[in-house]
Amino acid sequence: MYVHFLVVQAKVQNTKYQQGSGADLHWTPETREMVLSLGKLAFEQLQKGNLIFYESDLSECGLDAAAASVYSGVFTQIFREEPGLYQDKVYCFIHLSLQEFLAALHVHQTFFSSGQNLLSPPHSSESPESEAAFYCSAVDQALQSPNGHLDLFLRFLLGLSLLTNQKLLQGLLTQTGSSSGTNQETVKYIKQKLNEKGLSAERSLNLLHCLNELNDHSLVRRYRT
Asked: In what residue span(s) does the NOD1/2 winged helix domain sit (predicted)?
């Protein structure tokens, strides 16, 4: 749903502001740069636990406030009164789940374009990280989050590993593709985590949702029977 939403918004923006048409034109260089910059902003602010942010935050991610407001379907500008005699513009995504989706898009794109895993500590490994290790590290990060703020992010990230979603975002993602073998390794790792003691009901449920994102329904069917 979120992938389709992003594609539709890109088409709407190009039609409205650039008179673009046709399937090949909805990821123009300008639109692509805007979405990827929004993804960087979304991830950095998600890591900080921020739902609203200032113009300086946009600038740090290479976003121009006026240009961002043009992309109104994905990004909305709001005002908030500050103490004193002035108002500062503050910004937010139209829904937290959209911020989480764009954050996952940024992490996915960064790994497949440069090999950098934004979820791992800097210089944690000198050798290139495998795709399976990348996804498993995301599972670990989500499980270690004290408040579960990466749960939905993880589901989005795993969903982006599927070829069906990558095809829809062709032209936005420069490097795509996780083999079925990689996904099976991720599924196996998630099932191992589900068998560990001390896992809360909320985290167990989220891991089941993760398996569903990867089109593995074996445990869900088992629990239903």
From this structure: 34-93
